[in-house]
C-alpha cells in the first residue's frame, strides 16, 4: 500500500496494491495493520455511501464536538473532491486541495483519499452519476454539523465548473445556507 503526500499536511492519497490475473483482480482497500503502521487511523465507526447525478455539489461539511476523519473512495463515476484545512494551528489553515477521484486512476490504480478530523469536505460530480463511499472516524452528530459555502470568495476554490457546460452546480437547501469562511464557527484549537 502506497501512502502519498498531498499539498495539505496530513491529507493523504492511499493507493493499495492490486493483484490480478485473467479472472480479474483483488485488493485490500483497508487493512487495520497497514493503516496503523502508516500512522493513519485504524478505527472507523460508520460507512456512508452516496449516489449523485452530474453537477451535484455536496459540502463543504464538517462537524464540531465530534469531528470526523474520512476515508473517501469513488465506486463509480468521477468527482472533484475538496478538503479545506480548518485547524487554526496548522500551517495550512484556510488552504484547500482538490483531487480527481474515480474508481481507477488514469494509470489504472485504485486510490482513496484520507481527510483527517479538522477539515471541511465537499465534492462535485463530473460524470453522469457517481457513487461515493466513505468511512468515518466518528458517528454523525447532527448538533455539530456545519457547512461553509462552496463558493466562498476567501477560500477561492477552483471548482472545475467548465465540466458542467454552463450549468450551475446543484446544491442542497442546507448547503446553500452555509456560512462564509470568515464567519463560520470553526473547530477549537
TrEMBL record:
Q: Which reaction does it catalyse?
A: dTDP-4-dehydro-6-deoxy-alpha-D-glucose = dTDP-4-dehydro-beta-L-rhamnose
Q: What is its EC number?
A: 5.1.3.13
Q: Which residues act catalytically here?
A: 61, 134
Return the broad EC class. Answer: isomerase
UniProt protein name: dTDP-4-dehydrorhamnose 3,5-epimerase
**Record has Oxidoreductase as a keyword:** no
Gene3D superfamilies in alphabetical order = Jelly Rolls
Name any Gene Ontology BP term. polysaccharide biosynthetic process
Q: Which GO terms describe its molecular function?
A: dTDP-4-dehydrorhamnose 3,5-epimerase activity
Cite the SUPFAM superfamilies for this sequence.
RmlC-like cupins
| Transmembrane annotation, as ranges | none
Does the record's keyword annotation contain Ribosomal protein? Answer: no
Tell me the pathway: Carbohydrate biosynthesis; dTDP-L-rhamnose biosynthesis
Q: Which gene encodes it?
A: rfbC-1
Q: Which family does it belong to?
A: Belongs to the dTDP-4-dehydrorhamnose 3,5-epimerase family.
Site features described as Participates in a stacking interaction with the thymidine ring of dTDP-4-oxo-6-deoxyglucose, chain residue numbers: 140
| InterPro entries per the UniProt record, alphabetical | RmlC-like, RmlC-like_jellyroll, RmlC_Cupin_sf
Where does it sit, as one GO cellular component term? cytosol
Question: What functional role does this protein have?
Answer: Catalyzes the epimerization of the C3' and C5'positions of dTDP-6-deoxy-D-xylo-4-hexulose, forming dTDP-6-deoxy-L-lyxo-4-hexulose.
User: PANTHER family given for it?
Assistant: DTDP-6-DEOXY-D-GLUCOSE-3,5 EPIMERASE, THYMIDINE DIPHOSPHO-4-KETO-RHAMNOSE 3,5-EPIMERASE
- Subunit details: Homodimer.
Instruction: Give the UniProt keywords, A-Z.
Output: Isomerase
Amino acid at each position: 500500500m502506497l501512502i502519498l503526500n498531498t499539498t495539505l499536511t496530513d491529507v493523504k492519497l492511499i493507493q493499495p496494491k492490486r493483484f490480478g490475473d485473467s479472472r480479474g483482480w483483488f485488493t485490500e482497500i483497508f487493512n487495520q495493520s497497514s493503516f496503523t503502521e502508516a500512522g493513519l487511523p485504524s478505527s472507523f465507526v460508520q460507512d456512508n455511501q452516496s449516489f449523485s447525478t452530474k453537477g451535484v455539489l455536496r459540502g463543504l461539511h464538517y462537524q464540531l464536538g465530534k469531528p470526523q476523519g474520512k476515508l473517501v473512495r469513488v465506486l463509480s463515476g468521477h468527482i472533484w473532491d475538496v478538503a479545506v484545512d480548518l485547524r487554526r494551528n496548522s500551517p495550512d489553515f484556510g488552504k484547500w486541495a482538490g483531487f480527481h477521484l474515480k474508481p481507477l486512476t488514469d494509470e489504472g490504480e485504485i486510490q482513496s483519499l484520507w481527510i483527517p478530523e479538522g477539515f471541511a469536505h465537499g465534492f462535485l460530480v463530473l460524470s453522469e452519476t457517481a457513487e461515493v463511499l466513505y468511512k468515518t472516524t466518528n458517528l454523525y452528530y447532527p448538533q455539530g454539523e456545519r457547512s461553509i459555502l462552496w463558493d466562498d470568495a476567501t477560500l477561492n476554490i477552483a471548482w472545475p465548473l467548465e465540466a458542467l457546460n454552463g450549468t450551475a452546480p446543484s446544491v442542497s437547501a442546507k448547503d446553500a445556507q452555509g456560512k462564509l469562511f470568515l464567519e463560520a464557527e470553526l473547530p477549537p484549537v
